[in-house]
Write a structure and sequence with these properties.
mainly alpha, 2 domains, 9 helices, about 0% strand, elongated, DNA-binding transcription factor activity, HTH-type_TetR-like_transc_reg, DNA-binding, HTH_TetR, transcription cis-regulatory region binding
Length: about 200
């Protein structure tokens, strides 16, 4: 029985996804200077021409890659079951300690020196930042109408980004665990008691 060939549209979608994932991995491992379209295409197992068919420029490929993976991570965050604040804080911190953050950081550094890349990365980071903040507010059960709550949530995300930077050079797991515990206590005070998944003590 002959093998069933996937429809052309499905193959095209799979090629595009493979290129995006390969681009993020290359950025995280080799940085901007070492991540060319040819390198990504080879890693994805396609020709350079196929890569350029989907992404005409290098900037298209790498900004698209970071946006794609950021959307995947946001979807995973949104799909988290309702849980306590400690778990939510840990999940948000995890956003900044993996390959996605390393890849995004390489894009930031490149954008600081590449005029044509800078506006695209700035717009992308603003969009990703807004979405991450929105998800954090929802997961934490935060009421941003209360004074200082918005700034507290943003401070959490800024802290998580800082932990991600610290983790680039050394394994910061132990300190990160202590910081997450402390931030959870601070959030309970600033946001009001317990999170959506925490069990409130009986009176």
């Amino acid at each position: 029985m002959a093998a069933v060939t996937p429809p052309k549209q499905d193959r095209s979608r799979a090629t595009r996804q493979g290129l995006l994932e390969a681009a993020v991995a290359c950025l995280a491992e080799h940085g901007w200077a070492g991540s060319t379209v040819s390198v990504v295409a080879e890693r994805a197992g396609v020709s350079r021409g196929a890569a350029q068919h989907h992404f005409p420029t290098r900037e298209d490929l790498f900004t698209g890659a970071v946006e794609y993976v950021a959307e995947q991570r946001s979807a995973a965050l949104r799909a988290l079951p309702v849980q306590g604040r400690a778990e939510v804080v840990a999940a948000l911190v995890d956003l900044y300690t993996g390959p996605l953050f390393r890849a995004a950081l390489q894009l930031w550094v490149a954008a600081s020196n590449e005029e044509q890349l800078r506006p695209r990365v700035t717009e992308l980071e603003a969009r990703v930042g807004r979405e991450t903040h929105r998800i954090a507010v929802e997961l934490l059960g935060a009421d941003e109408e209360r004074p200082g709550v918005r700034e507290t949530v943003q401070g959490l995300l800024d802290m998580a980004r800082g932990l991600g930077l610290a983790n680039l050079l050394t394994d910061d797991t132990a300190r990160r665990r202590r910081v997450v515990a402390q931030w959870t206590a601070l959030l309970d005070g600033a946001l009001g008691g317990t999170g959506p998944g925490d069990v409130r003590p009986e009176a």
